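Exercise 7. Given the encoded structure of a 450-residue chain, write a plausible sequence.
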């Protein structure tokens, strides 16, 4: 069995680590390599590049980017720019949910401020690819290189063609699917079973293999309740006998609501191909039912914070930020039940996630350090404002849920007080929070792929 994933985004990561936890640690291939894949995961780029990783290789810190003489780099924990005599000529993008200020890509701007190309960096500090843009800001082609800078893969976004330069020979491919099929064939691996989580390129690749096999499609997207199922989904379910490939498919749907929508739209035979799934989450600890509350923010816009603090003297509020805090937020430390952590160190972050049992997702601005998901994995009970929630997948929503409108902060506070005083209620909310995130045990997960 082979995992064939389009990208290693958060849904893919959740699926991947579920499979690892279940002992299903077979080969995992990610088609679009962002340079920061886990060590055990491979990609077409990694396979063909054959880069030798050296002991002193490291991800680039923002100020390690090479710039022309007299240009300078300015940055903080959120972003960085490259300037020439005060004019911005480059924008440095950090790898999200990684170490602080680590470069994932650099956009280079022309004198008029238009992006002309983007350099892509990996976790070893190698500039492994470059995307070129037209004057409209549309990507027109992308080139991949070996660590020595030798051309490897050329992608023309206008024509969809691929060119591979490998072992002294050029290979031309009409489409990405042709390129990926070639890659799988030269790897010399068994192609009898795949796990995919996207109905685009991964499905097209598997569907067009000239070998028989049984494959698993994990649906992690959303069905439009007002329309028929996507054509590719009808294809894998073989409704009306439209599957013309040598492959047979099982559709696994981790989300209960999505599962109900899908089975409600298909015939009896197709329903036999649909399974209700879930995820195994690598919880890092168990909730200890302490009144310690955490919020991670890079903004001082935390609605109703002072009112919550003043009306909850029996609760301890811990607020961390990657940056310095404003005077407005620093003033909150006058309350005995508030502890602030400006420019927080990673060890302190870890300590807070180990010691706090409630997370308040009530700050405006971008989420930092994958804070909500991390709180979920730390078995913390999560409360949120609907207007500013950063990741509702991990927050109990709906009737008697833990999501409130900002104007209803007193209701949030009331439920918070009730929960802290009633451990049985607390346990029930935690159980329902896990159910909403579609948590299952190892045995149930493994049976999906038998």
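Solution.
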């Amino acid at each position: 069995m082979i995992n064939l994933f389009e990208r290693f985004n958060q849904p893919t990561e959740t699926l991947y680590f579920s499979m690892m936890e279940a002992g299903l640690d077979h080969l995992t291939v990610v088609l679009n390599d962002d340079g920061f894949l886990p060590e055990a995961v491979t990609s077409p780029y990694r396979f063909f590049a054959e880069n030798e990783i050296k002991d002193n290789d490291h991800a680039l810190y923002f100020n390690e980017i090479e710039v022309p003489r007299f240009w300078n780099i300015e940055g903080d924990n959120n972003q960085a720019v490259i300037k020439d005599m005060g004019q911005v000529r480059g924008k440095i993008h950090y790898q999200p949910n990684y170490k602080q200020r680590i470069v994932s890509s650099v956009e280079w701007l022309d004198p008029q401020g238009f992006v002309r190309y983007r350099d892509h960096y990996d976790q070893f500090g190698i500039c492994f690819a470059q995307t070129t843009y037209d004057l409209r800001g549309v990507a027109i082609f992308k080139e991949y290189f070996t660590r020595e800078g030798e051309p490897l893969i050329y992608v023309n976004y206008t024509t969809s063609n691929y060119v591979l330069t490998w072992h002294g020979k050029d290979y031309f491919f009409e489409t990405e699917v042709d390129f990926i099929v070639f890659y799988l064939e030269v790897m010399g691996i068994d192609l009898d079973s795949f796990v995919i989580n996207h109905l685009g390129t991964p499905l097209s690749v598997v569907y067009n293999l000239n070998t028989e096999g049984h494959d698993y499609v994990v649906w992690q997207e959303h069905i439009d309740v007002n329309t028929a199922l996507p054509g590719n989904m009808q294809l894998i379910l073989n409704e009306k006998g439209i599957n013309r490939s040598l492959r047979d498919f099982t559709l696994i749907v981790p989300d209960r609501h999505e599962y109900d929508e899908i089975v409600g739209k298909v015939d009896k035979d197709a329903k036999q191909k649909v399974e209700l799934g879930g995820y195994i989450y690598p919880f890092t600890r168990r909730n200890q039912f302490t009144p310690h509350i955490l919020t991670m923010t890079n903004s001082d816009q935390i609605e109703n914070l002072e009112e919550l603090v003043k009306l909850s003297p029996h609760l301890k509020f811990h607020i961390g930020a990657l940056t310095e805090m404003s005077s407005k937020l620093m003033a909150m430390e006058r309350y005995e039940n508030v502890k602030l952590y400006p420019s927080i160190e990673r060890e302190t972050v870890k300590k807070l996630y180990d010691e706090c049992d409630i997370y308040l997702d009530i700050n405006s601005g971008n989420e930092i350090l994958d804070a909500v998901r991390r709180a979920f994995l730390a078995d913390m009970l999560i409360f949120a404002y609907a207007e500013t929630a950063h990741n509702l997948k991990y927050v109990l929503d709906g009737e008697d849920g833990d999501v409130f409108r900002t104007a209803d902060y007193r209701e949030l506070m009331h439920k918070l007080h009730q929960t802290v005083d009633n451990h049985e209620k607390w346990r029930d909310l935690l159980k329902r929070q896990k159910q909403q995130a579609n948590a299952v045990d190892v045995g149930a997960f493994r049976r999906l792929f038998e």
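Remark. The chain is about 25% helix and 25% strand. Students should compare their own answers with the one above.
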